[in-house]
Amino acid sequence: MKTCNEEMKVSILALAVQCALLATVAIPPGAYAADSETDALTKPTNTVDFGALYSSQDSAKFGEYNGLNKEGAYGLGGFDVRGGNGYDQSKNSALRWKLGGANLGTTSRSLDGSVSDQGKWKLNLGYDELQHNITDTYQTPLQGSPGGNNFTMPANFGSINGQSSPSARNLNSTQLGAFQTEQEHTTRRNGSFGTSYTFSPQLSAQLDYNHLDQSGAKLIGTGSQGGITLSPGTNLGRAEAVNIIMNPTNYQTDNVNTALNWVGGKAHITGGYYGSFFHDDYNSLSWQSAFSSNGANTCSGTGCFVNNTMSTAPSNTLHQANLTGGYDFSSTTKLAGGFSYGYNTQNNSYAPTLIPQASGNSFDMMRANGLPSSSLNGVVQTTHGDLKLTNQSIKDLTLSAGFKFNERDNRTDSNLYRYNNIAGNTNQLTQIYDGVNTPYSNSKTQYEAAAAYRLTKAQNLTLAYEHENLKRWCNGVVGGAQCVASPTSNEDKIGLTYRLKALEDVNFNAGYTYANRRADADNSYLANSGDYGQTTAVAHSVLNGGNFLGYVAYPYANRNQNLGKAGVNWQVTQKLDLGVNGRFAYDQYDATLGVQNGQSAGVNIDTTYNYTENSSVSAYWSWQNGQRNLRSGNNGSQITAPTNIWTNKLDNNSNTFGLLARHGGLLNGKLEIIGDASYALDASSYSTQVPYNPSCGRLTSLTCGTLPDINNNLLSLKLSGNYKVLQNGKVSLTYLYQKLNSTDYFYNGQQFGYTPNRVMPTGLQPQGYTVNVVALSYSYAF
Amino acid sequence: MKLLIKFILLYGLLFASAYAENTPPSAEKAATKSPAQQMDRDSVCTRCHDENDKTPVLTIYQTPHGNKADSRTPSCQGCHGESEKHISSKTNSPDVIFGIKKGAYSASDAKDQNTACLTCHEKDQNRTHWQGGAHQVADIACTSCHQSHAAHDKVRDKRTQPDVCFTCHTDQKAQVRKFSHHPIGEGKVACSDCHNPHGSAGPKLLKKNTVTETCYTCHAEKRGPYLWEHQPVTEDCATCHTPHGSNITPLLKSRPPFLCDECHDGPHASISPVAGNAAGMQGGLSPTLPSESFTGRACMNCHSMVHGSNDPAGALLQR
Q: Which tens digit of pLDDT belongs to each residue from B200-236?
């Protein structure tokens, strides 16, 4: 829109446009010859980009998602080409097509294309690739490819004494030499297809399909039967021999989404089907553990190792029928809603439970008659319904009332699974585990009402109320035990929001919300982690899910919540904007033990100054803080409250600064310079107080005090220059400097000679980096 | 379930009555103007407004709103109103002024702007829940996010969309830069992959009806159902994860064992206070026995199947 100071003159170009447009009416299409300047404005600009960049350092973290995880040169490529008679104003055609590609020289490449006869039909295709680089410092003696599901120890590795302390435990030279570095990454390749067809102005249909292929591996911890001896009736050995191994992600997911849309004068409705089919190439992961419980490095050959197996993600399917729509009772009274029903199944074969060992014997993880079926035959039915009525028939007042219902009904059978626990010992009854699966179900019903009133032309007040009822249960649990800590909870929430247009260019808003949750507690619950023991379901000492008397997990505790927020946006001038906002939330839990309270706060300031039409500077600062206080005890039982109380506090603090500058119009409009700098500082700290133990701070204990902060400080500086070299050509030169300082005690437990006993070291290193990237590209527009 | 059945019946009745109404407004509109006639009508405006305007005008012909062969395509006055007073004198504003910032004229109320857009766009599945949704209630104008005249509408491009959302959602702007994050800044995940800004029946304007359903869209391996379920996984992924960014990988609200301690006290090692001993010998602990229960992955050194286990011997989420 022209500014008020400008004359509403009829420019030469505007006249050309007018003439060209009029010509479409007056002149037959074949004789049409559009003005070239008009064409430039009304027809799309196609671009092709190509070039190269150089990255100065190997870093999985820097290249986590951008594909630049290795030092070296990469190709740059991208294009955006559009066409079709629909762009030609002389032709009575709505046909348009588009082809695009981005990041073609990296593992973050994408391609897409579409063609449509607008208003009639549309087809689109897409391909998107993403390599998620996780770490390049992981070391393991296990042999096997990332993405595989079987890992074995080198035959000459020998055993490791899981009983020795880290300082005394030395891997011998053969063992150290067996460690090799593996690149951990997963790759997602997503192909998509979509089409829509309009049968009439009232009726249309659409179909979307995508196939997601995932490969690679992620690290996972594994507890195992370390050092078992397989002679029947003997000790099964030291437990919790931990190996961090590569968990394969050989997944394929197919998603289908179809919809049939009908639009009427007062109503519209969409009926659809959503199908999701997840397939995992594996159902188990096998590995060898070299840990033994007696005698370090005295064993030789493959007989030193214990073979172990665990499950992987099971293949599953979801079919979902969906219905959404709306009805206008009048122009001021409208109803909208939806309903969906989903049927989710999983019947993948269980992971093998009879594990062959090098000795020729096999270790059966299941006990006699302990396996009721070879697969779960799991079924979950999900139901959703919602309705919302809005009314604006009273001037300046908007009323709404709504209802929502969501249910996850797990219809899977509950059975008794009798197996040997990790650390199992056939001579110790307590290590025989009788587990009963507890298929969790839940439903949530919400009622909400809101009134928004326009007090004056510059002031709005909104009052909202919501009631939420949550139910949790398990169907047909063997033994009939309660499976959840809180079978029901009810929460009421009331909120008030005020908006003020203080001046024409100043907008202010403030809001406050109070919520109160009341949760029923059932301390007799066992959860699926409850060992049902040998006789009755509730006789074993796992009441309250094994937690001490008075302990309540925070999602199931009574809670008071207070939230406040406020913000102001000021358009100081037509060139200068300023925004400030802040928020604060405080949660208080009614629990003798467990999370006591939590709070979060944040302040954001941002400003933008557009000093010329194509030049601007913007800056922002964001501060965020979150805290959580926990109270727990280390003695007591489910029927005796603990007296040794300790507390723990988490403090997350974050500061982010950013500055973005864009200066165009240099060198007679040929040069544009862009600078983007940001600095993000994040710190997480844990502090533990143990008043009942005066010696908790000793070096042999260190169960109280503070942990070293988890710090991640990221400095990023990007400078770009775009220079127009030809009528349609542009050269871009970009320099990126990025430095991550990362300190994290997490890695201490991974190092050779320092890892806990019974944990195989991985040598994982903190992921800090300093990377310089230079990119040069040419963009051609046509 | 009875409540649900009543709800379904009510819903069916409403739509049955709605179906009887079969004269959609779009059909009425479509019947009249030819493409050429519509372009001719545009010239009422384009004789003055062109690319020299601060907001590009003519590039709208590169967008769906300028595809004149589609009979639904509006003219300038179809959105901005007849604006007869404005045509007669520049001192008068057009009937509907889009935008959120003051320009030559004050922007129209968001409600009036949105009415112009919703005339055509209200009745579809993506905007069914617009009325009463968070953005509608907050008087957010369509043009707060969309640039309908621009050849490239930033909010409809996966790579540039987050910048548009971050204009208001400044907390998230900072959070996506944290150590652990979804590839949002890298242009591989867009806000609209999870959220429907036009309103939804889900929490936080999520596209799906629940948090878990939304997450399963990409993380279908977590869906199960598993033999051994972890209760919070079946209810709300956000019990443990924070989706926009975290200082603790992978998108965790806290780190084990402290994260686990928020729901478990009593079983096994969760009764024990933990501090510097989680940092192992390098953290100051004397070289005795740093515990695998506290260091590194802590609880998840063994209980690694936190999203569920399908191993018959995995009730404790170890296998």
A: 999 999 999 999 999 999 999 999 999 999 999 999 9
The whole-model pTM stands at: 0.90
Is B120 part of the contact surface with chain A (CB cutoff 8 Å)?
no
Give the number of beta-carbon pairs within 8 Å between A and B.
611
B25, B132, B187: residue with CB nearest A450:
B132
> Which of chain A's residues have a Cβ under 8 Å away from the Cβ of B107?
none
Question: Which structural domain, as residue segments, surrounds residue A38?
Answer: 1-42
- Report ipTM (2 d.p.): 0.91
Return the structure tokens found at A310. 């665990």
pLDDT digits (tens, 9 = 90+) for B15-26: 444 444 444 444
Q: Answer whether B22 sits within 8 Å of A202, measured CB to CB.
A: yes
* A599 domain-assigned: no
B158 and B148 in a common domain:
no
**H or E element at residue A209:** strand A203-222
Mutate to test the interface with B, among A47, A599, A702 (most CBs of B within 10 A): A702
Cα–Cα dist A440/A296, whole Å: 45
Interface of B with A in 128-147 (CB under 8 A): 128-129, 131-132, 137-139
To the nearest whole Å, the CA of A479 is away from the closest chain B CA by 16
Burial of A506 (0-12, 13-18, 19+ CB in 10 A): middle
**A665 Cβ contact list (under 8 Å, min separation 6):** A612, A613, A614, A615, A672
In a domain, B47, yes or no: no
Same domain for B110 and B171?
no
Q: Where are the alpha helices (DSSP H) in A73-201?
A: 173-178
Selected residues 220-239 of chain B with any CB under 8 Å from a CB in chain A: 220-229, 231-232, 234-236, 239
Q: Is position B39 within any domain?
A: no
Q: Looking at the 3D structure of chain B, how many domains does it have?
A: 3
Inter-chain touch B151–A244, beta carbons under 8 Å: no
How many CB atoms are located within 10 Å of the residue A700 CB? 11
Give a yes or no: residue A132 inside a domain: no
Whether A441 and A500 have beta carbons less than 8 Å apart is answered as: no
Cα–Cα distance measured from residue A102 to residue A115, given in angstroms and rounded to the nearest whole number: 19
CB A25 within 8 A of CB B37: yes
Nearest to A712 among B247, B273, B296 (CB): B247
Query: What's the CA gap between A273 and A284, in Å, rounded?
Result: 32
Asked whether residue B241 falls in the same domain as residue B287, the answer is yes
Cβ within 8 Å, pair B280-A745: yes
Question: What is the tens place of the pLDDT at every residue in A235-267?
Answer: 444 456 889 999 999 999 999 999 999 999 899
* Contacts B153 to A, Cβ<8 Å: none
Q: Do B171 and B209 belong together in one domain?
A: yes
The average pLDDT across A370-381 equals 95
Residue at A443 is within a domain: no
- Same domain for B250 and B182, yes or no, is no
Domain of residue B197 covers 154-215
Chain B: residue whose CA lies nearest to A218:
B250
Contact B262 A553 (CB under 8 A): yes
- Domain assignment present for residue B59? The answer is yes
CB contact under 8 A, B47 and A17: yes
Whether chain A has a CB inside 8 Å of the CB on B213: the answer is yes
Q: Which of B118, B259, B265, B305 to mutate to test the interface with A (most CBs of A within 10 A)?
A: B265
**B161 pLDDT above the threshold of 90:** yes
* Nearest Cα residue to B285 out of A278, A707, A781: A707
Same-domain check for residues B256 and B291: yes
Residues B250 and B283 in one domain: yes
Shared domain for B187 and B147, answered yes or no, is: no
Asked if the structure places residue B44 within a domain, the reply is no
Question: Is A338 contained in some domain?
Answer: no
Residues B160, A130: Cα–Cα separation, whole Å:
18
Residue B21 has what pLDDT? Answer: 43
